[in-house]
Design goal:
alpha/beta
């Protein structure tokens, strides 16, 4: 059995706990954000051996025993009872079973608000179509957009748009609220179903 590593937060999220997976290798293949140093999580992956080990161990934990992976996440939530929990500042939803596990975790802890931004558009759309139900109210699943990346969003999920002055995404709706850069001061992404703009950094 592999011990799941759950971070107690970071400089952007504050004290919001999160679970992460290896960047790029657990994401959709061929994403533009994986090229030429565009991935936000790659810097931490390259600089910190303990980070690489923790994220890699999480992937091993899920691969080795999927039920135990989510049991460990639930054990953490039962012990700490956080108001907020973030899935994947690095990495992405691995498969339909993984997404179903996230849903079951949210259902088991209705007092915690869960957030994930994902580029696994087809997988999420398939899950919603086949399950015939919406995500729990305390689980916000948002699509993570990237300039030039085609995005099919038939279920009207909220979108996290990237604002890149050098590669402007003209699909960003007028009046979309802008992330101030820190969950410590805002948390609006966790509380509403509207779109948000993140500035490229």
């Amino acid at each position: 059995m592999y011990q799941v590593a759950i971070s107690d937060g970071n400089s952007k999220l504050g004290t919001i706990p999160q679970v992460n997976l290896p960047c790029i290798s657990t994401c959709r293949p061929g994403l533009p954000c994986a090229k030429a140093g565009q991935c936000y999580a790659m810097k931490a992956w390259q600089q910190y051996p303990t980070t690489r080990a923790a994220w890699s161990r999480n992937l091993l934990a899920y691969t080795f025993d999927r039920a135990d992976y989510f049991a460990q996440v639930q054990a953490y939530l039962a012990k700490h009872r956080p108001a907020y929990f973030r899935w994947h500042s690095s990495g992405d939803i691995l498969d339909l079973d993984y997404l179903d596990g996230m849903v079951r975790v949210a259902e088991a802890f209705p007092a915690t608000r869960f957030l994930v931004f994902t580029k696994q558009y087809a997988l999420v759309n398939q899950y919603l179509a086949e399950s015939g139900k919406a995500f729990p109210d305390n689980l916000l699943v948002g699509f993570s957009a990237w300039p030039g990346l085609e995005m099919d969003n038939p279920h009207g999920l909220p979108v996290a748009w990237l604002y890149d002055r050098k590669n402007l995404d003209l699909r960003i709706p007028d009046g979309t609220r802008v992330c101030p850069g820190s969950c410590r001061r805002c948390k609006v992404c966790w509380l509403t179903d509207g779109d948000v703009v993140f500035f490229k950094h």
